[in-house]
Amino acid sequence: MMTNIAIVGCNGKMGGFVARAVEENAACQTVFGVDAFGENKNDFPVYPSFNGAAEAPDVIIDFSNPAALDGMLGYALKNGVPCVICTTGYSQEQIEKIKAASEKVAIFFSGNMSLGINLLIELSKQAARVLGNSFDIEIVEKHHNLKVDAPSGTALMIADGLSETLSDEPQYVYDRHAYRKRRSKNEIGIHSVRGGTIVGEHEVIFAGHDEVVTISHQAQSKEVFAAGSVNAAVFLADKQPGMYDMSDLLADKFQ
Q: To 5 degrees, how large is the angle CA 59–CA 65–CA 71?
């Protein structure tokens, strides 16, 4: 069954990656795009807003700007269209709007759309269940020199996933230059590197007595996030209202 997709922010860099990923996926097609600039440089119709869009999508993929949220959710709720929301930087108020919308339509919302990084999180949680608090846990993330936030949202996703698994609630420690004491057993160390054009690298280190277990992921380009959003759209097309994320997609793949 073909999944018809509308892309919000289709003329942006990530929107272009999404359009290409859809084109390369035999299970779906782009029926229209929405972009504030309205420029049509694609093989599908592009509208400056959802007003006037005649085509009927099965799923919306949003890789745009928080300012586009209200228009997208309004259209989705009116027409019963599920949404894959990949945009970041939402306010708490906007996040609450997304949660409220999920009561009426299916919403896929994840801080990182890479299938690989979400697999890393699941594998790290499995390792934490086995190793427990007997191994020290450190997270190292690396990104390009233009990234302004540190640590990355993905590093915090990893730490939060581990926190759900560990029996003792951990303390997040960011770098260690301000600490003059031994590492406590309930710490998760989180460290940031910024340099060059690194797209994104994350490493989870489990350091025990005389042995170290490392789980790592490298994103070679931003196209992996676009491909993940398209996989999410195909997954979401026939789902009931609710909030979904990459853990649901992974569970579906491994059934």
A: 55
- What's the whole-model pTM score? 0.80
Tokens of 244: 């979904």
CA distance 133 to 94: 36
Terminal alpha carbon distance of the chain: 20
CA–CA dist 41, 1 (Å, integer): 27
- Supply the DSSP symbol for 180: -
Q: Is the pLDDT of residue 127 over 80?
A: yes
Sheet holding 28-34, edge to edge: 46-47, 28-34, 3-8, 59-62, 83-85, 106-109, 242-244
Residues recognised as catalytic: 143, 147
Strands (DSSP E) found in the chain? 3-8, 28-34, 46-47, 59-62, 83-85, 106-109, 136-143, 171-174, 187-194, 200-207, 212-219, 242-244
